[in-house]
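Researcher: We're teaching a course module on how sequence relates to structure. For the next exercise, students receive a sequence and then see the predicted structure as tokens, so they can try to spot secondary structure elements on their own. Here is the exercise chain.
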Amino acid sequence: MRQERWNAGRIVDQTDRVFVVTGAGSGLGLATGHALARRGARVVLAVRDTEKGRRAAAAITADTPGARLEVRHLDLADLGSVRGFADALRADHPRIDVLVNNAGIMAPTRALSPQGHELQFATNHLGHFALTGLLLDLLAEGVDPRVVTVSSPNHRRGRIAFDDVDGERTYSPMGHYNQSKLANAVFGHQLHLRLTGAGSPVRSVLAHPGYVATGLQRGTPVRAVRLLYGRLLSPLAGKPAEGALSPLYAATEPGVRGGEFIGPDGAGELRGAPTRVPLAPRAKDDATGRRLWELSERLTGVRFPFPATA
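Model: And here is the predicted structure for the students to work with:
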């Protein structure tokens, strides 16, 4: 008998578990939070726009009365906001079970974060790096704790320009998006190695949604990118609920192991049910991993609370 493909209906009961989902006001983050709430989880909707977050919470509650939701402000591009979010969460929660690093931006014209870093690198990578480090001790107290970092197949096209990471000399909207997605992949893999070396109960898992129709592609001000991804390729795109399956699998499926990369099983990893997919070799390169980790510590001022032997 052919086994049923994994779907959100197969998420095991999540009652009493606490999930933090970044970028949960719309798209993949909203779909992820919604599916978790249906299975009984308490979900912190971490959003840059709190009014949008409240509308998202209302939509979830309309479908799932009694859903346990919190809407909290988080601007991942601003390290001050990241620290404020972590401090406020710590005051109210003695533990977190799963952190889903989902939020992201795609191919804007060049702009800088409040701390002066290229906006995609700051939002997609540095903010999540800092957030994970600031919450790691709460995660260590969790039940089957995990960090799920959402990357993209585009990480395989990326290069980290360590000598020009902020694009001061050369900036490409899609090139720097690919750089940020590779940074996500390198971070997730390095985090797995360091957690394992420290004997931590927390698992680091990577995931990607495939190609999904969200505001990410349509919102870019770069016309060529908006035309290609927002219109010409839109017939190939799945819906957010489909794209959320891989992060949901990574966050909840009992058999998932640290260090795995979960993506769709369809052609080109564009759509489909969750399965294990390969990381680019450069995402697992030790020298790149150490260099990115050291750079991220320096730029964020966050050092992870690993034991000294890690």
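Model: If you want an answer key for the exercise: The longest strand covers residues 42-47. The CA atoms of residues 236 and 287 lie 36 Å apart.
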